[in-house]
Amino acid sequence: MSLTNQEPHDAKENDGTCEGCTSRRHLLTVSSLAGVTTLGLAACGSSNAASQSSTAAAPASPTGEATVAIPLSDLAVGAKGTAKLDGGRSYLFYRVSETDIKAYRAVCTHAGCLVEVGADKDFACPCHGSMFDPATGAPTAGPAPSALAAYPAGVEGSNVVIYLEG
């Protein structure tokens, strides 16, 4: 408790408060709000990778020109593929159905390593063991904190196309 050089003053007779004093109700309200705000900020700063990366960010709607990535015949339904486009950058593809194609930039969200098609069902990062679900781009194993960058893709004629300026 600290002492001040203020002159003592009397509380108002009608409500038990004094002029210039902070009421107990006001103090409790401000303290409670500060505690709730602190808890809210702590929850936002959580680094739980499972909650952050359960789904990939949806790719933007296709805009601009489509870039032919690979022949449709090279990507059967349920298959994964890769292509170098856009000045040698690598992209990953997954054919969900006859017309539904998923496309991702082949850069791991952990350390920037090149993600590969992988021998198993998932895309694989050889640097630190991160694995990514080809249907969502979300990490399924390893230290990657978030999903692969997704791009709009589809089928045009006999080709798989990607919209790099989504």
UniProtKB/TrEMBL annotation:
**Under the cellular component aspect of Gene Ontology, which terms does the record hold?**
membrane
Asked if the record carries the keyword Acetylation, the reply is no
Sequence ranges assigned to domain Rieske in this UniProt record: 67-162
Q: What Pfam families does the annotation carry?
A: Rieske
The GO molecular function terms of this record are: 2 iron, 2 sulfur cluster binding; metal ion binding; monooxygenase activity; oxidoreductase activity, acting on paired donors, with incorporation or reduction of molecular oxygen
The coenzyme or cofactor needed here is: [2Fe-2S] cluster
Q: Which residues cross the membrane?
A: none
Q: Which CDD domains match?
A: Rieske
- Which key words are in the record? 2Fe-2S, Disulfide bond, Iron, Iron-sulfur, Metal-binding
Xref: InterPro entries? Rieske_2Fe-2S (IPR017941), Rieske_2Fe-2S_sf (IPR036922), Rieske_Fe-S_prot (IPR014349), Rieske_Fe-S_prot_C (IPR005805), TAT_signal (IPR006311)
What does this protein's UniProt record list under function? Answer: Iron-sulfur subunit of the cytochrome bc1 complex, an essential component of the respiratory electron transport chain required for ATP synthesis. The bc1 complex catalyzes the oxidation of menaquinol and the reduction of cytochrome c in the respiratory chain. The bc1 complex operates through a Q-cycle mechanism that couples electron transfer to generation of the proton gradient that drives ATP synthesis.
What name does UniProt use for this protein? Cytochrome bc1 complex Rieske iron-sulfur subunit
Origin species: Neomicrococcus lactis
